[in-house]
Amino acid sequence: MLIVQKFGGTSVGDLDRIQNVANRVSESKKAGNDVVVVVSAMSGETNKLLGFAKHFSSNPSRADMDMLLSSGERVTASLLSIALNEMGFGAVAMTGRKAGIITTNHHTKARIEEINPHAIQKSLKDSNIVIIAGFQGVNSAGDITTLGRGGSDLSAVAIAGALKADLCEIYTDVDGVFTTDPSINEKAKKIDKISYEEILEMSSLGSKVLQPSAVQTAMINNIPVYVRSTFPEKPGTKI
Ligand code: ADP
Ligand code: ASP
Ligand code: MG
Question: Which residues line ligand 1 (CB under 6 A)?
Fold first, then answer.
């Protein structure tokens, strides 16, 4: 199988957690899959960088913000690659640009226009685990753009579509999609299976579990998405 696995901020929140992700990814590779990994920045990192910019200006240029914010995802992608190589796996870390992600020019909230997955495919063919910095692409002029808060979900789903992957797994800090936010309502129940339409409504109403444009992309391209926890081996939610 060709699997795209996305790990959110809490899943890569410290160095031990990045090692935990490396272990999980290596299990999928050892099971005989082609594995593409999309990572978020370490949790808190994007907000920290936003705060740094605010220290200097209340109105920084959006192009500068994209240069700044995209760096968080590059840190985790490269550290994960370093960890996997140390474990004896071939792994290659890529920026959004190298992964062929071309977006609109709308800095800080760009939409993906197309993905040229050639470099990813070539690296997979050479039996590498391909690790892609989420949340970012480049516009037609080659400037770095970002995809809006939570945008690594969109990176993962769009890459899964471009590669015609068999599955897009979204690893996060809860066991799957719940009836309401489990961090607020302890009566929230985990849902085993949910339609694209229902999850789209949920995410449009502000549930963080999946970014709305990621759901739209999955729905339009009929990409199977599986939301599950990074930590225990428990069943998640099939979309
Ligand atoms: P990640 O860093 O993995 O992208 P996010 O913080 O963006 O994670 O999204 C996961 C969070 O979404 C959960 O910790 C949870 O508090 C919140 N959330 C809100 N609504 C829901 C829901 N209906 N089901 C699951 N999680 C939800
Ligand atoms: N790091 C970005 C954010 O915090 C993107 C993401 O995590 O998906 O919004
Ligand atoms: Mg998120």
Answer: 8-11, 40, 150, 172-174, 177-178, 180-183, 202, 207-209
